[in-house]
Design goal:
It is a single chain. About 75% of the residues lie in helices and about 0% in strands. The chain has 3 helices and no strands.
Length: about 70
Amino acid sequence: MEVITIESNAFKELEAKINLIAKLLIVQQVYTHDTHINEKCIDNYDVCSSVKINENTLQRLRSNGL
């Protein structure tokens, strides 16, 4: 096993960066989890019923990127 030595200031900077990355990952995980809870999946029938169009119109809108 090798022993690696670094200056105290360099170690503290590295530790601060690692802690920041860990905090950002936790925030991202919480945000992603919350958005998945609030999302509701709907099928083609629900979309067509909501906006009062038929499935052919829905497909045409999707194909045109609308």
